[in-house]
Amino acid sequence: MSKYSEELRATAKAMVAKGKGILAMDESNGTCNKRFQKLGIPATEEYRQMYRTLILTTPNLADYVSGPILYDETIRQTTPEGVSLLAVIKEAGMIPGIKVDTGAKELAGHTDEKVTEGLDDLRDRLAEYYKMGARFAKWRAVITIGNNIPSKGCIEANAHSLARYAALCQECGLVPIVEPEVLIDGDHTLQKCWDVTDATLHEVFKQLHAQSVAYDQMILKPSMVIAGKDCPQQTSVEDVAEATISCLLKNVPATVAGIAFLSGGQSMQQSSAHLNEMNKRFGDQCPWPVTFSYARAIQQPALDHWSGHKANIAEAQSRLLKRAQCNSAASRGEYSAEMEKELAIA
């Protein structure tokens, strides 16, 4: 048992407090730069600093977001005025988190499959992040559905790494977000996605148990059970909600502190509608809070509008807040298409 158990339990609970979700703003500098380049924004540290400050200083964001997941550069940054971004987060009443994996790399002996790396020196990095003020961490594993994949070896390798990471987090005082993402890319059916998600979650919790990870001191960040983007038979909101919740109820222990979904390539409206349907129809059956941990599904309208111009900051923040409001409503089963119209930008 971790000496931080009580603190971890309280943090995990606060991360999935009613009506709140987690903001994933942990894209690497390379990914952030690519998004900037598409919009003609200079791909420099100065502009990344401005963008991250824009997000974190959005008025009232803490009403809908419990905390942001940061990248290593971000956790060390200040606002353009010199105020630490960590101080901004805490002052707003949010909990700082940090991405700690070093990315998905080719899995040896397994064509078209990846394993996430970053366990080397992780204990030392976690101790530093805790000292800086971070209170939760994130590690993402990717599972691809394709011709004869995922393999048993790929699922096992990723589940084992997730479990080792989660155990180290709890030892160091950080709540682990365990993120096994079954990718939406491909032409697989809803049923195929269900089968792969089922096998993945089963192995993840087997490995978490083997590494003595405390379920009430962790958050699961799964992908939704959904047909592949190229599947000719696309699934209804109702089918996605039903398939996803049935898979979670089968595999996720009731003591897990919360579920915070990734949006994983869905449109902003889709990810809100799916989350809403799950809470509306199955909220009473779920032993854990079911909420969001979205990135682009919250940030994209703000990034598009800002486009690197200081004069656009206030309106960009307004757009960010509106997406956070929509997803907060969805986490309570109170979202509707009408909300999109009411919050529509003229």
Biggest β-sheet description = 8 strands, parallel, barrel
* Helix and strand run: HEHHEHHEEEHEHEHEHEHEHHH
Number of domains: 1
Structural class: alpha/beta
Helix count equals 13
Beta strands, count: 10
Q: Which shape, going by the Cα principal axes?
A: globular
What are the main properties of this structure?
13 helices; two-stranded antiparallel ribbon; TIM Barrel; 346 residues; eight-stranded parallel beta barrel; 10 strands; alpha/beta; 47% helix
Question: Could you walk me through the main structural features you see in this protein, from its secondary elements to its overall organization?
Answer:
The protein has 13 helices and ten strands. The protein starts with a helix and ends with a helix. 47% of the residues lie in helices and 13% in strands. α7 packs across α8, α8 runs parallel beside α9 (237-251) and α9 packs across α10 (268-282). The protein has helices at 5-15, 29-38, 45-56, 72-75, 85-92, 122-132, 152-172, 190-210, 237-251, 268-282, 296-306, 313-331, 337-342; strands spanning 21-24, 65-70, 97-99, 104-106, 114-116, 136-143, 175-182, 219-220, 258-261, 290-294. The protein has a single domain, classed as Aldolase class I (TIM Barrel). The strands form two sheets. It has an eight-stranded parallel barrel, surrounded by seven helices. The protein has a two-stranded antiparallel ribbon with strand order 4-5. The radius of gyration is 19 Å and the shape is globular. It is an alpha/beta fold and 346 residues long.
